[in-house]
Structures are given as C-alpha cells and as structure tokens.
Amino acid sequence: MQPTFITGANAKINIAGVTVGFCNDVQYQINVKHISTQILGAYESSSIEPVSYSVMGGFSVIRYARGIDSNVPNLSSSGNGIGSIGNGSNNNKIHDSFDPSQLKYASFFELVIYQKRPNTTIPVARIRDCRIISSTTYLTKKNVMVQTFQFMGRYVDEDSFLAFSSSAALGEQ
Question: Most exposed: 6, 86, 109, 112, by fewest CB within 10 Å?
C-alpha cells in the first residue's frame, strides 16, 4: 500500500461540527512547561518535572459574504464568518467570544483535521475544548479578505496517540 501524505489539498477542517469552507491553514502547538528542581548545595538540577500542559493554535479563513448566489455548489448563503460556524443544531456559539455582553456564554468547541480519501475521511487530529482568544482580519486592495483566529485548547488527540486528563491518570473522575 502506498503512503498517502497529509497535505492541504487533501485535508478537511471541521470546527464545532461544521466543515469550514476556504479554511486555508491551521496550526497547533502542544506546550508542556517544565521546571528543574534543585537540591540545596548542588549546582545542577536534580530532575526536570512537568508542571503544565496547554494547547495553542490558529486557523485562517478566506472570507466570503452572506447572501451569495445559492446556485454556487457547497457554499452557504449565510457566508463563512465566525458567526456561521457552530450556530446550528449543536447550539455552539463560538462568535460569543467576540461579544463583550456574551463572553461568559461563549462555547467550547472541537477542531478536527481530516484527511480526505476516496469515499471517506480519516480523522488525523482532534483538538478538544477549544476557545477562540483572538481574531485578526486582513484585507488589501489586491487580495481577498482573510480572517485569522487564535485559540486555546485543553487536549490534542492525533491518529497516533490520545491525550487524557491528568486526574484520570490518578484514578480520579
């Protein structure tokens, strides 16, 4: 069997249960902060211990406006702004992250990266319990509008490993 490499051309990005059209990039980083422990009188560390785990990342969307011609296949007439993501039956309101009166109601969401295969999709990475923390919009005279969103997440699962709560490792719920 030939290997199939994951590329932007064969990837699909799903945010809060919605496949995001024209999502042109996504990145994430897992950070495990460590400290070195010292013994009184010793110059070197006695050990290096993990103290926190976090996930940071971002994605960019090439924007199109609401009210687009419904004859164009696979495009939503409500546009592809952040307000149209996760605003369906799952009642996920990601856009509340940008409304000061609604910040406490902003929802967590999942971001899933899939690899498209003939007749199927295969999940490659799943970032759980995400919240949008910033947004940047970029528009120039000769280019399309691009919105970039930064997020924080609690866990990343990939096709090669799963992340579990540290309290679960201690037998706690």
Answer: 6
